[in-house]
Design a protein that fits this description.
nine-stranded mixed sheet, FAD/NAD(P)-binding domain, D-Amino Acid Oxidase, Chain A, domain 2, disordered C terminus, alpha+beta, single chain, binds flavin-adenine dinucleotide, globular, eight-stranded mixed sheet
């Protein structure tokens, strides 16, 4: 097999892949960053970034690009219980040892914009980006991987190392026999909506009836009311009700949450609703011969929800480059796993603000 030879091929240009590509390209590596999609592209996601993400986004050099559109800053989250009680957590209430607030706000940014900015940063750092390049298979022969794309239009590539950043259904992990079946059977429906009443400067999480929905305002209140609405339901119980009528199901479900009553009269879906399932992945190992898994390809989604408690993917990705750097002297699997745990454990302060009950 032929194809240009790179130091590293990164499969998947989501936050994990693009961030890894930026750091490695900055370090002087020859990087190929491939993705089957053409950017900007949408991704089912609640589109909320914890306050811990912003320093990483600054370090990646994308804050100016993101701020080209008015940025939605969230002051915290409100959690609505099935019985009507509400708990509010304020980011600013999280204090460091000196008593000063650690964070002011989180962000809510459409993934089409966030991921494009991260991809452009990787390209700007020197990574060679190939869009509409879908990995079909890969094989390690002697000291280099041969990556074969699907379809004749794309060229194969070769790389001394591979970073699998191809998301929760990682083709790399499956092709190399590293994936284990997911145990969590949930379906997520993600819409962009306008007209939801009572939105403020807080994200919202509503829990009721074995379903939950997250609301993340995507525009500053003064500029508009575009809102991400991410509903997660049981696949076994609700899956058959969704088929062929995702948007109707979403709207019907929203009306069942006590905290949304009276707020939906003018609500309308304004973008094609995205659906995803199999939200959880498990892998046998996080690294292998000349291989590293990052982002969702490596990380069991602990909550699988649009959760304020989930550490941002950017955070995981920013740490992943260190492991990739170490891969020049490929570490034993056990130490790689240890390092991953040490660097990606959820940052408690990102949502440890003292809550107050409003219900
Ligand atoms: C419903 C839901 C809500 C969520 N809400 C939040 C939230 O509010 N905040 C948060 O921080 N996280 C949230 N997450 C998690 C977040 O979306 C992921 O952690 C994040 O997208 C992982 O980034 P990644 O780069 O690892 O993978 P992805 O963003 O999934 O990117 C993987 C990329 O790989 C590409 N790819 C896949 N297969 C191939 C192939 N064969 N060849 C080439 N390219 C390929 C895809 O096109 C894609 O661009 C949510 C997840 C879900 C499902």
């Amino acid at each position: 097999m032929t194809g240009r030879l790179y130091d590293v091929a990164i499969v998947g240009a989501g936050p994990a892949g693009s961030s890894t590509a930026t750091y490695l390209a900055r370090a002087g590596w020859q990087v190929a960053l491939v993705d089957r999609a053409a950017f900007p592209r949408d991704k089912p996601c609640a589109e909320y970034l914890s306050p811990a993400a912003e320093p990483l986004l600054r370090d990646l050099g994308v804050m100016d690009a993101l701020a080209a559109h008015p940025l939605s800053r969230l002051l915290g989250f409100r959690i609505y219980a099935p019985g009507g009680g509400v708990i509010q957590g304020d980011f600013a209430a999280t204090k460091g040892s000196d008593g000063a607030a650690l964070f002011a706000s989180g962000l809510a940014v459409p993934r089409s914009r966030l991921d494009l900015a991260l991809l452009e940063a990787a390209a700007g750092a020197g990574a060679e980006v190939r869009e509409r390049w879908s990995l079909a298979s890969l094989a390690l022969e002697e000291d280099c991987y041969h990556l074969q794309p699907a379809g004749p239009a794309s060229e194969p590539i070769r790389a001394r190392l591979v970073v699998a950043a191809d998301g929760v259904h990682s083709v790399v992990a499956r092709r190399l026999g590293l994936a284990r079946p997911a145990a969590l059977h949930k379906v997520a429906l993600v819409a962009h909506m306008r007209g939801i009443g009572g939105l403020g400067d807080y994200g919202e999480m509503h829990v009721a009836n074995r379903r939950y929905v997250g609301l993340a305002p995507l525009e500053p209140r003064a500029r508009g009311d575009l809102c991400n609405v991410a509903l997660v339901v049981d696949e076994a119980r609700d899956g058959c009700k969704i088929a062929g009528r995702a948007e109707a199901f979403l709207l019907e479900s929203l009306a069942t949450f006590p905290g949304l009553r009276g707020r939906l009269a003018d609500a309308a879906i304004v973008r094609k609703t995205l659906a995803t399932s199999g939200l959880c992945t498990h892998v046998r190992r996080l690294s292998g011969a000349r291989l590293l898994l990052v982002g969702d390809a490596a990380t069991p989604l602990a909550t699988t929800i649009p959760s304020p408690a989930r550490a941002s993917s950017g955070r995981c990705a920013a740490h992943s480059w260190r492991r990739a750097s170490a891969a020049r002297h490929w570490p034993p699997v056990t130490s790689a796993r240890w390092r991953w745990r040490a660097t990606t454990a959820p940052t408690r302060p990102s949502f440890a603000g003292s809550g107050r009950s409003r219900g």
